[in-house]
Amino acid sequence: MNTAGGADRFLYTCDVIEGTDALLLINTRIVASYHSALAFTAIFPAAADFTQKDGIPMKKRVFLLLLLAAAIPLFLPDGEIPEKAIVRTLDTSTVCTSIRCQGTVEPFRSIVLGVPSGAITEEMFVSAGDSVQRGQLLMTYRNGESSGEDSMLREFVGAAVDRLGLSLTLPDSSFARNGCLASPFDGRILRVNAVEGEQVSPLWGAMQLCDDSRMFVRLQVSEAELRELLPGMPVTISGDSFTGMRSGVVIETSREIRTKLSLTGSSPSFGEVRCELYDGSGLLPGCSVDATISVSRISNAIVVPYSAIMQDEDGNEYVYLLREGHAEKRIITTAADLGDEVWVSSGLAAGEKLILSVTAEGRRVQG
User: Fold this and answer.
1) Where do the H-state alpha helices sit in the chain?
2) 272 SS3 class
3) Which of 31, 52, 68, 227 is the most buried if burial means most Cβ atoms within 10 Å?
């Protein structure tokens, strides 16, 4: 059918049927052309078939179809077509609040072994990575000339380390006797600094020995979060130098607050937390880790997607709920971020229907 001049035919129909102008004024925002009638005919063939009975003229059929199409929104509240939305029924779950921080892996104990000031290495019996037993001979040395400068240097470095809060262990020469240095405990040689025929440095010592039969992590936690931590809280770690996750438990929290120093000045204060790992096999002492400490476990908590929460001009956080077919704004209080979700401590209840797609207050919504 040729639809050219459809608007003219529509206007002509309006002129010949009594009362047409009033009806069109009611529904002009919905029905405006001859093409609307054709679309309605395709959707409702029964209505089109009805207009073809009893020889109703074409112009009257068009008008009747337009009238039917225009009348449909009158049966909807406020004449509004519902917005299709994604809706989720709220339910309770158990959530765990946590603190995220960073730190380093360290062995159960570690020591830098030294020799008397001015001593010269004669023979080395171990290399880095070797496992040793308590009492095993590690090296021999002969006494050399000792100068007072070595003692002064150690004192100066020790004072600077304490003042700046740096981590530096000075050599312990108490295990070197009669030209021999023996291992004070079972462990593994981390590094060797001494070189045969050369004087041993008073700062770096002869070698570093560690007991890695048990492994720990030392974490740095912000001053504000430190007070929430207690011994016995579970911790998980991950890092670039190993695969998977490792689990452990907090065994000690710092009793002092420290401040990092940087080129730009002081950074936020922190406290140290020491945790023991259940399985430390394969971990390298000194490697960096990302840690998550589980602080509390909350039952019957309401959790919603982060994307469903909005903020109004007054700074209030809110969501939209589906109530009696309409979108209702609800002010909420959030307690903790849980990745892509948020724990809502007040404002919502189980069984309520949360609108996940963006809408507007008062709009009709079909979930």
Assistant:
1) 6-16, 20-27, 34-43, 45-51, 58-71, 148-164, 223-226
2) strand
3) 31
Q: Tally the domains of the chain.
A: 4
pLDDT surpassing 90 at residue 74: no
Report helix, strand or coil for 131.
Answer: strand
- Of 297, 325, 346, the position where a domain reaches its end is 297
52: tokens are 């073809």
Q: How far is CA 42 from CA 13, 81, 86, in A?
A: 21, 20, 29
Q: Which range scores top for mean pLDDT: 61-65, 80-84, 216-220? A: 216-220
Which carries the bigger pLDDT value, residue 58 or residue 294?
A: 294
Give the CATH number for residue 271: 2.40.30.170
Task: Give pTM, 2 decimals.
Answer: 0.58
Residue 355 and residue 123: Cα distance in Å, rounded? Answer: 76
Asked if 241 and 290 touch (Cβ cutoff 8 Å), the reply is no
Residue 118: its pLDDT value, please? 87
Which whole-number Å values give the CA distances from 33 to 24, 41, 67, 69, 215, in the listed order? Answer: 11, 13, 12, 12, 80
